[in-house]
Amino acid sequence: MTTFRAPKGTFDLLPPDSAAFLAVREAMARTVRLAGYQYAETPVFEDTALFKRGVGESTDIVNKEMYTFTSQGGDSLTLRPEGTASVLRAALQANLHKAGQLPVKLYYSGSYFRYEKPQKGRYRHFSQVGAEALGSEDPQVDAELIILAVDAFRGLGLTNVKLLLNSLGDATCRPVYRAALQEFLRGLDLDEATRARIEINPLRVLDDKRPEVRAQLAGAPMIGDYLCEDCKAFHAEVRELLTDAGVAFEDDPNLVRGLDYYTRTTFEFVHDGLGSQSAVGGGGRYDGLSELLGGPALPSVGWALGVDRTVLAMEAEGVLEKETSRVEVFAVPLGEQARRLLFGVVRDLRRLGVSADIVFGTRGVKGAMKAADRSGARYALVAGERDLADNLVQLKDLASGEQIPVALDQIIPTIKEKLS
Ligand code: HAM
């Protein structure tokens, strides 16, 4: 026991549950690596201004949720609330977009921080795997990314993830829509804070979950009716590519997302097994973000999947496998001579790629066999003085209880063969 606790809104990942998180992250990463996305890692903190400018001054993330602090040197730094601004910053800084073929395809996996009200599926420290394709205006890239996310969820055994799709238009048509929406919203009966939001970020009002607001939004102008010809054609192409791929989606004209950088394609993956936090992932196109960060025009698209919520969704669907086995082989030496011998055997097994562990210290047979059982190993290697005198060890199948003597020089080949 300790008097300390993990900070509010955070949790520790410990065995046996930690293995599932690792497996989920790895499965997501493997899926995008198959499409040529390469690993990127950026600092967990950045210049505060990067997120203010990138994510947007009017967003909840920037206004209420950032962990911002002043460093000893007097700089304002912020723990990253999301990955896109950082990854784009890093790629621009390293001139990756000039180094080769576009798009630059990057993926990342790590910790993100938002000062949110903690609840199931909503944490202050959470984990995302994200993918970004920088520098292409081809709708095939949007479709590729969405399909990869769908494949990742399917690969994890999830069958109830729903894809919501929208287009937010571009620099040509969005301002026209924004003005029309503002005009509509100004005529509604809304509280002070919401009225202020109409002037700063009217699209966010569409996302308001309160019934009294929702009821008034029924006749609001819809972005779909305002898309310019280019945006319409672009969106139609993305939809067609998804349909060809057998990816089901639902058009959601109210999907605006909580970050300001989006243009054209926006999407969210939702799951109903998470309580009120339904988004297991989300993303979209952000064609203007590079310029906002002082870079060249670099139309881009990406997503981030929430690892914690994906694990919750898997739990809800009953497809989360708990790790029951720590190692394949567990050595139980009885006596000093056996301890030395099996220490070497375990070392050699590991060098050959067989996971193995051994009882440390001197324990009685009963305690040692219990440790072997607890490890979840398939085989125990048991050796006492008498076995060694006969140049033998006992190989015990821990599931069936069957035990066979194995000659010392045959231990490793026998185990390798049994495990293959
Ligand atoms: P986001 O929708 O803010 O997008 O977050 C992506 C996912 O991270 C969410 O769908 C959710 O699963 C998970 N997530 C977010 N906040 C929390 C939290 N407090 N607790 C647990 N899980 C959370 C972005 O972050 C964008 N950067 C995605 C993107 C990439 N857009 C373009 N490229």
Automatic annotation (TrEMBL):
<feature type="binding site">
    <location>
        <position position="128"/>
    </location>
    <ligand>
        <name>L-histidine</name>
    </ligand>
</feature>
<dbReference type="InterPro" id="IPR033656">
    <property type="entry name" value="HisRS_anticodon"/>
</dbReference>
<feature type="binding site">
    <location>
        <position position="114"/>
    </location>
    <ligand>
        <name>L-histidine</name>
    </ligand>
</feature>
<feature type="binding site">
    <location>
        <position position="132"/>
    </location>
    <ligand>
        <name>L-histidine</name>
    </ligand>
</feature>
<feature type="binding site">
    <location>
        <begin position="261"/>
        <end position="262"/>
    </location>
    <ligand>
        <name>L-histidine</name>
    </ligand>
</feature>
<comment type="similarity">
    <text>Belongs to the class-II aminoacyl-tRNA synthetase family.</text>
</comment>
<dbReference type="GO" id="GO:0005524">
    <property type="term" value="F:ATP binding"/>
</dbReference>
<dbReference type="GO" id="GO:0004821">
    <property type="term" value="F:histidine-tRNA ligase activity"/>
</dbReference>
<dbReference type="Pfam" id="PF03129">
    <property type="entry name" value="HGTP_anticodon"/>
</dbReference>
<keyword id="KW-0030">Aminoacyl-tRNA synthetase</keyword>
<dbReference type="InterPro" id="IPR045864">
    <property type="entry name" value="aa-tRNA-synth_II/BPL/LPL"/>
</dbReference>
<feature type="binding site">
    <location>
        <position position="257"/>
    </location>
    <ligand>
        <name>L-histidine</name>
    </ligand>
</feature>
<feature type="domain" description="Aminoacyl-transfer RNA synthetases class-II family profile">
    <location>
        <begin position="23"/>
        <end position="333"/>
    </location>
</feature>
<dbReference type="GO" id="GO:0005737">
    <property type="term" value="C:cytoplasm"/>
</dbReference>
<keyword id="KW-0436">Ligase</keyword>
<dbReference type="Pfam" id="PF13393">
    <property type="entry name" value="tRNA-synt_His"/>
</dbReference>
<dbReference type="InterPro" id="IPR004154">
    <property type="entry name" value="Anticodon-bd"/>
</dbReference>
<dbReference type="InterPro" id="IPR004516">
    <property type="entry name" value="HisRS/HisZ"/>
</dbReference>
<dbReference type="GO" id="GO:0006427">
    <property type="term" value="P:histidyl-tRNA aminoacylation"/>
</dbReference>
<dbReference type="InterPro" id="IPR036621">
    <property type="entry name" value="Anticodon-bd_dom_sf"/>
</dbReference>
<keyword id="KW-0547">Nucleotide-binding</keyword>
<comment type="subunit">
    <text>Homodimer.</text>
</comment>
<protein>
    <recommendedName>
        <fullName>Histidine--tRNA ligase</fullName>
        <ecNumber>6.1.1.21</ecNumber>
    </recommendedName>
</protein>
<keyword id="KW-0648">Protein biosynthesis</keyword>
<dbReference type="InterPro" id="IPR041715">
    <property type="entry name" value="HisRS-like_core"/>
</dbReference>
<keyword id="KW-0067">ATP-binding</keyword>
<dbReference type="InterPro" id="IPR006195">
    <property type="entry name" value="aa-tRNA-synth_II"/>
</dbReference>
<feature type="binding site">
    <location>
        <begin position="82"/>
        <end position="84"/>
    </location>
    <ligand>
        <name>L-histidine</name>
    </ligand>
</feature>
<dbReference type="InterPro" id="IPR015807">
    <property type="entry name" value="His-tRNA-ligase"/>
</dbReference>
<keyword id="KW-0963">Cytoplasm</keyword>
